[in-house]
Design a protein that fits this description.
27% of the residues lie in helices and 34% in strands. It is of the alpha+beta class. The chain has 2 domains: 34-204 and 305-372, Antithrombin, Chain I, domain 2; 211-301 and 377-405, Alpha-1-antitrypsin, domain 1 (Roll), CATH 2.30.39.10.
Length: 412
């Protein structure tokens, strides 16, 4: 079985004194138009696809985390440069059927603005940038679209100067509050552009865990074998809960309640991979509708902290975007430059997450490189074996992060 921790957003919390009283009790509704809601459905569907592919390909004992929103935004900027069969392939993989390019760009703009401003108790930051070789000609329309709708910072650099790597990585570090310090190791002679998204999330629990209640407790694999002792947090609170044949789950809200973490614990006899493979837009909607409030619920959740890194070229190719990575002439990114053959040479994704008594801090970075060639007890929830978690926004159902914890790590 693949045991992974996958995250779609990456938050870390180190906020003041612990308390169990709610920070705020009133989530703020977000009203989006139908096209923006359709885009959200597409993003979530794409995120589940990528999550499944990675979960099924990684080693059983590895924690995994991705940010579907980060990947989608980096690819959306790139999509504005695609045409022909390449554009069609990207639309299919990203589930963008029925939306025009203008619909997509305007919807992302609306979504980003909504997510950034919905909860003053949560830090949510989204940044985009485009870096191109300074002697490479880029279509003005392509740059202007990404500046306008994605607020992308656009910079020309001398890619032959080793300092360019440091400049790009410093931007990544700044935008993730140093949780991810770099995304590129070197610039190859045929690289002409990097399109980068960075997301940073930091939120305190609405109901904080008391550090005095954290204790050492065993953590088991899904077969019931002892893995290690972990730092187990504990809280008693009124929380949303659901249960079905696959899993039982709780919802842990942040701040005023717009953002929350869903922790999904497989039922006895259900593997973590079986749960992940059942995750899609339809099942997700049904599952979210099943939550109800339970009073005085005892929750046990391990502290954890880890980083994840993945080259997504193979994953995206398996999902149907292979043409975009073709170095032999089939890829079409003529809307970036119409006179030079371009293709995507790499899609690199890095994430970070830390969960502790105060809350969650998470970060994600996605870089697209463009190159050229010429059920536990009735009132107890104890996450003491592999589980899945999702960080989402209440009213839009936008998924920030998605993960699978095989073995909690707390880092150094």
């Amino acid at each position: 079985m693949k045991k992974l921790f996958t995250l779609f957003l990456i938050p870390v919390f180190f906020l003041g004194n612990c308390q169990k009283e709610p920070v705020n009790t009133s989530p703020k509704p977000i009203n989006l138009d139908q096209k923006s809601l359709s885009l959200l459905q597409a993003d979530n569907a794409f995120g589940f696809d990528v999550f499944r592919e990675i979960s099924n390909s990684e080693d059983d004992s590895k924690n995994i985390m991705i940010s579907p929103l980060s990947i989608s935004l980096a690819l959306a900027m790139t999509y504005n440069g695609a045409d022909g069969e390449t554009k069609e392939a990207m639309e299919n993989v990203l589930h963008l059927h029925g939306l025009s390019t203008e619909d997509i760009n305007k919807s992302y703009q609306s979504l980003i603005n909504a997510l950034l401003s919905v909860d003053p108790k949560v830090i949510m930051e989204i940044a985009n940038s485009i870096w191109y070789r300074d002697d490479f000609s880029v279509e003005e329309d392509f740059l202007n679209i990404n500046k306008t709708y994605y607020d992308a910072e656009v910079t020309g650099l001398d890619f032959s100067d080793p300092a360019s790597v440091d400049i790009i990585n410093q931007w990544v570090s700044d935008k993730t509050h140093a949780k991810i310090d770099k995304i590129i190791d070197q610039i190859n002679p045929l690289d002409v552009m990097f399109l980068i998204n960075a997301i940073y999330f930091k939120g305190t629990w609405k109901y904080e865990f008391d550090k005095n209640d954290t204790h050492e407790a065993p953590f088991y694999d899904e077969n019931g074998n002892f893995l290690k002792d972990v730092q187990m947090m504990m809280i008693e609170a009124d929380l949303n809960y659901t249960s079905n044949d696959l899993f039982h789950a709780i919802e842990l809200p942040y701040g005023q309640g717009n953002y929350s973490m869903i922790v999904m614990l497989p039922q006895s006899g259900v593997s973590i991979d079986s749960l992940v493979n059942n995750m899609n837009n339809d099942t997700w909607k049904t599952w979210m509708e099943g939550f109800y409030n339970r009073l005085d619920f005892d929750v046990f959740l391990p502290k954890f902290k880890f980083e994840f890194e993945k080259e997504l070229k193979e994953v995206l190719s398996q999902l149907g975007m292979g043409i975009a990575f073709d170095p032999n002439g089939d890829a079409d990114f003529s809307k970036i430059n119409s006179s030079i053959y371009l293709y995507i040479s790499s899609v690199k994704h890095k994430t970070f997450i830390e969960v502790n008594e105060e809350g969650t801090e998470a970060a994600a970075v996605t870089s697209v490189t463009v190159g050229t060639t010429t059920i536990g007890p009735a009132n107890e929830f104890r996450a003491d074996h592999p589980f899945v978690f999702v960080i989402k926004e209440k009213y839009t159902d936008a998924i920030m992060f998605m993960g699978k914890v095989a073995k909690p790590e707390t880092g150094s």
